[in-house]
């Protein structure tokens, strides 16, 4: 139970902590000042949604997200959201590739070469198919979490931990709804693809509670740290570097490597979700399908990392609200239907 639960927990966190999140750009777009309560609500809602999606996936023994959408939304809306999920996974993976290019610019690697490198690494991962994906997350994500927490705690220590929480100054709480809904579609896409591999209901609780607690804790600490460098954030494509500006250059290199790893895990998660959906239409090995998708995405990365996030993420956050509501209402409606 614990081994399986931790495996899915790292898959969930790997899906969440990508270019937008690990760089700080996504948190800054949605949270910022007066957001402590918003982050707590996000952690709670994310835990509940994860548990519900995993439970449905386990019951349906699903291999892709269509059976889950049928249960949540009915057949008519499933067609619309099927298209939306494909578009979402495609466009957010483009953002990850762009983030990979932007991150490697810190070591003076050309933007286009950085994109080729991360694209090649994603394709290589799918030589091992699903096992490659879960094994990579089990290794990379714990390292990423420890290092990110280490940097944030060290930064707060330098500042004397000036963190305060006042309930009367938490006016940004609605951001929890759009931020959670933003992350619902990739969650559905990735967790639905492994429904037939969940062995025990205990795995669902370990994965959902663990991911909610870890993501909530990191989000709060990260957001508080960004608030303390708010005046510098506009000068950086990647807000994390505003926190790191007082650190030695080797720390910037280490965190750039970890940021790249976070981008890589989310790019892989996006391709994983697309492959699981397209396998009914495209026959062939996973790595060949991944290569085809990366080739389609590469030209779109020219729009730039922060531009793509600032336009697409808030838009998806609003569009996903319906799926978010359907997931939260599912236990109530399902219980009412069974009671009749």
TrEMBL record:
Q: Which domain of life is it from?
A: Bacteria
Do you know which InterPro entries this protein is assigned to? YkvI-like
Per UniProt, the keywords (alphabetical) are: Membrane, Transmembrane, Transmembrane helix
Q: Does the keyword DNA damage apply?
A: no
- Span-the-membrane segments of this chain are 7-24, 36-56, 80-103, 109-128, 135-155, 175-195, 204-222, 249-274, 286-305, 311-333
Q: Does the keyword Transmembrane apply?
A: yes
Give the protein name, as stated in the record: Membrane protein YkvI
């Amino acid at each position: 139970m614990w081994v399986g639960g931790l495996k899915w927990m790292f898959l969930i966190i790997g899906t969440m902590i990508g270019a937008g999140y690990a760089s700080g750009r996504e948190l800054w777009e949605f949270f910022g000042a007066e957001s402590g309560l918003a982050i707590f609500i996000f952690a709670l809602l994310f835990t509940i949604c994860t548990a519900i999606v995993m439970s449905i996936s386990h019951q349906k023994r699903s291999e892709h997200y269509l059976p889950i959408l049928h249960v949540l939304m009915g057949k008519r809306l499933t067609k619309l959201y099927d298209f939306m999920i494909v578009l979402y996974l495609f466009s957010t993976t483009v953002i990850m590739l762009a983030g990979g290019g932007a991150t490697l610019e810190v070591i003076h690697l050309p933007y286009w070469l950085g994109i080729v490198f991360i694209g090649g690494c994603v394709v290589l991962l799918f030589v091992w198919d699903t096992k490659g994906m879960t094994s990579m997350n089990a290794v990379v994500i714990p390292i990423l979490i420890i290092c990110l927490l280490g940097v944030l705690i060290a930064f707060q220590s330098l500042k004397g931990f000036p963190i305060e929480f006042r309930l009367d100054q938490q006016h940004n709480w609605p951001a929890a709804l759009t931020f959670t809904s933003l992350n619902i579609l990739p969650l559905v896409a990735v967790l639905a693809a492994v429904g037939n591999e969940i062995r025990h209901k205990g795995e669902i609780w370990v994965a959902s509670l663990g991911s909610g607690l870890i993501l909530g804790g990191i989000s709060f600490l990260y957001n508080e740290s960004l608030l303390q460098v708010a005046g510098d954030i506009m000068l950086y494509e990647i807000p994390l570097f505003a926190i790191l500006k007082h650190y030695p250059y080797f720390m910037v290199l280490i965190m750039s490597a970890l940021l790249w790893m976070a981008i890589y895990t989310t790019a892989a998660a996006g391709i994983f979700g697309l492959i699981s959906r397209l396998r009914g239409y495209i026959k062939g090995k996973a790595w060949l399908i991944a290569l085809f998708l990366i080739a389609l995405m590469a030209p779109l990365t020219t729009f730039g990392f922060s531009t793509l996030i600032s336009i697409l993420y808030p838009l998806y956050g609003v569009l996903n609200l319906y799926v978010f509501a359907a997931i939260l209402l599912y236990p109530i409606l399902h219980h009412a239907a069974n009671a009749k």
